[in-house]
Amino acid sequence: MIVDHGQTDLRDRMLNRKSTILQLGQFLALFASLLIAAQIGFILYQGTPFCLNGGCKVVEQLTRVSPLVFNLVGLGFFQVIFWGLRAARNDLRHLPQFVKTLLLAGLAVEAVLISFQYLVAQAFCAYCLGILAFIFVLNLLIGFKQTILGLFLFTVVALAFASLETSQPKTNEQAFTAGIFASRPGATKQPESFLFYSSTCPHCEKVIAALKNNGRPTLHFNPIDQVNHLEFPGIVRHARYSPAANRALLTALGIEEIPVLMTKTPEGLSVLRGETAILAYFDKTNSAEPAGQSGSSATPAAPPAIPGVENKEGCAVATDCSSGGVSPRPPGR
């Protein structure tokens, strides 16, 4: 009997290569599981996820699902992949079909999340990009066909998401009203003021606290993150509002810090930025009364109808400013 040692060696090398690929896949799935488990532990201990960049905070503020839920699902996903790869017994031919299907589904979900970050949040989460990298490499290890299918699915889902109307409203009126969480009718209907703030910004809290004793201006509250309540007398909550619309409007105006007060006047849009400037404006309008008019009917003077007021005492839009004595985010965030 003649044995072709060359073919035997080639087959052994191919089997060893496939075995190494599956072992690498198991290692990546296990490492991703441990990473997510550490993130879950951090969330349970600190109350917020560990973020490598400001984009993580932006994405967290704009999503209604708790980061804990996201991470628990991710942990389950990578654990199923890990045990599925182990079930193949170092042979790709024995790899369960559900592993391939789950990895493709993972790419589809990541396409939605990454598209949301790019088109809506306008910021990328470094942690999320890391998870995407794990899923992509796992698909790559399965083989060329799996990789092509994954890239095709990712592209199709991303394009479908991009075709949806997720941008800020197109009209000036909608750009303000779509982001109003609550309104407080004042003694004077005009001008209307829109306060852009964050639930984690102490400077914003000081402005809101100061305005509780000023019943004259008509105020609208436009938070840039997801909030569920606002302690302010006389407010009327809106059924729906879009934090993304508020963030997009600030981005379009080149404003990177909050609090921001925008006032609509017949002359145009006035912008004040920073705690000091906003409080000074309201202090001035609260005490000023035109001659012959009572305080209840006087119309407060608008701030100068030009942006560019010195930007002091504010929080960066893309940063959680919860340190420094601010109260924690409202429940349900």
Strand element count? 8
Helix content: 40-55%
- Physical arrangement of strands within the biggest beta sheet: 4-1-3-2-6-7
CATH fold type of the largest domain: de novo design (two linked rop proteins)
Label the overall shape.
elongated
Q: In sequence order, what are the helices and strands, one letter per element?
A: HHHHHHHEEHEEHEEEHE
CATH architecture of the largest domain: Up-down Bundle
Describe the structure using short key phrases.
single chain; 333 residues; alpha+beta; de novo design (two linked rop proteins); Glutaredoxin; six-stranded mixed β-sheet; two-stranded antiparallel ribbon; 10 helices; 10% strand; elongated; disordered C terminus
Task: Map the helices and strands.
Elements: H1 5-46, H2 54-62, H3 67-87, H4 97-121, H5 126-142, H6 144-162, H7 172-177, E1 182-184, E2 192-197, H8 202-211, E3 218-223, E4 236-237, H9 243-252, E5 257-258, E6 260-265, E7 268-273, H10 275-287, E8 315-316
Parallel strand pairs: 2-3
Antiparallel strand pairs: 1-3, 1-4, 2-6, 5-8, 6-7
Helix pairs in contact: 1-3, 1-5, 3-4, 4-5, 4-6, 5-6, 8-10
Textual characterization of the structure:
The protein has helices spanning 5-46, 54-62, 67-87, 97-121, 126-142, 144-162, 172-177, 202-211, 243-252, 275-287; strands at residues 182-184, 192-197, 218-223, 236-237, 257-258, 260-265, 268-273, 315-316. The strands form two sheets. Strands 4-1-3-2-6-7 form a six-stranded mixed beta sheet, covered by helices on one side. A two-stranded antiparallel sheet has the order 5-8. Helix 1 runs antiparallel to helix 3 (67-87), helix 4 packs antiparallel against helix 5 (126-142) and helix 5 runs antiparallel to helix 6. It is built from ten helices and eight strands. The protein is α+β, with helices and mostly antiparallel strands and 333 residues long. The longest helix is centred in the N-terminal third of the chain and has 42 residues, at 5-46. The protein folds into two domains: 11-162, Up-down Bundle (de novo design (two linked rop proteins)); 172-288 and 297-316, Glutaredoxin, CATH 3.40.30.10. Helix content is 52%, strand content 10%.
